[in-house]
Amino acid sequence: MRVGFSCSDSPSREIFNGGGSEIVMMESPCRRHGPSVTIERAPPRVVGHQCMARSMTGRCRGRQGGQMVSRYTIQSAVKVLDTLFAFTSPDPLTVDELGTRTHQSRNQVFRCIKTLHEYGLVADREDGYVLTPMALRLMPSIRRDPIVMVAEPYLRTLQEQTDETVNLVVRWQARETITLTTLPSRHAIRLVSQVGQVSFLHAGATPKAMLAFLESSVQADVLRELPQYPRYTPYTELNPERLRAELSVIRHRGYSISDQDFEMGGRGVGAPIWDRHSQPIAGISVGGPVHRVTDETLATWGPLIVQVAEAISTEMGWPGRPTNPPRVQQNIPHPGVPVGK
Fold first, then answer.
1. Among the listed residues 328, 314, 322, 326, the one whose alpha carbon sits nearest the alpha carbon of residue 275
2. Which stretches make up the IclR-ED domain (predicted)?
3. 19 shares its domain with 69
């Protein structure tokens, strides 16, 4: 993750690097903006279809030996898409940096980036390539997703009540999740998530909340391959028995806790969103920096986020629990109504 002042003119220096994440302090000389610090996760080393699972099992969502199994797949198109989805932040990227992220040769990346450039999706700057506003043309179709339309008002209410970063995450492929919506905190120091960020089910508040309620076959697959899953931070759990026990606790209380297992310096809670068949199809989370999110804070957020997730689920057609009583006694407000009023 990155920790820094939000003033874009500030210099930076690295102060921590470990467990796949980094913390960077940025000292702002800007008198007009003043200090404004964010905690931000570093861009993933592997993005798009270049899935970490391939290094574990030799395959990646239909790939075998690094190649797509389907005879209908256009290999060159996959390489171009891998390059496109390597742009996970506004920072410019060089050909060498793109090659590192996509595991492609310099020549392959150059051809892919030129294709994207000629199409108008990326622009060539002196310090590298950046996405153009043309990519925003896809945003309206994402915002029309039913779950986004239903969830956003509730997420805004949750963000206003907690004043921390709130995320909407959906299950993507068998063992991964992808962030659809994120509402950042207004605090100067805050967690920052990225729309489109892909992660595995074994770490993070929302992924673990979904994994705990997924079918046993999926859980068995994840636990079996867990030792080879990515260790996002030194706190990422890669012991199958300990994660199995944690999933049991999550099922019992209805929400998960992430304590720096996905983001160094970040803590939060997550709960699943259910479909009309009572299957977890998505999840929501709220999180913040460890110095502000205490154990008492997590205990308060847990029941609240369960209620918010269940309110969203109900609007999505979830029939509810026919036998078990609600885990939370307080009523979740309709979007726009403060808690307790």
1. 314
2. 134-318
3. yes
Note whether 66 and 150 are same-domain residues: no
- Segment 314-330 mean pLDDT: 65
Whether residues 94 and 38 fall in one domain: yes
Q: List CB contacts of 89: < 8 A, sequence separation 6 or more.
A: 43, 194
Count how many domains the chain has: 2
Question: What does the alpha-carbon distance between residue 238 and residue 65 come to, in Å, rounded to a whole number?
Answer: 25
Q: Indicate the residue among 115, 137, 159 that finishes a domain.
A: 137
3-class DSSP assignment, residue 23: strand
Q: Average pLDDT, whole number, for the chain?
A: 78
Cα–Cα distance between 316 and 308 in angstroms, integer? 13
Is residue 287 assigned to a domain? yes
Do 201 and 311 fall into the same domain? yes
Distance CA 185, CA 287 (A): 9
Amino acid identity at 107: N
* pTM of the complete model beyond 0.70: no
Beta strands in the chain (DSSP E): 2-5, 12-18, 21-26, 37-40, 63-64, 67-68, 122-125, 128-131, 165-172, 176-183, 191-192, 198-200, 256-259, 266-274, 280-289
User: Is residue 120 exposed (0-12), middle (13-18) or buried (19+ Cβ within 10 Å)?
Assistant: exposed
Q: Confidence class of residue 142 from pLDDT cuts 50, 70 and 90?
A: low
Q: Does 63 fall in a domain?
A: yes
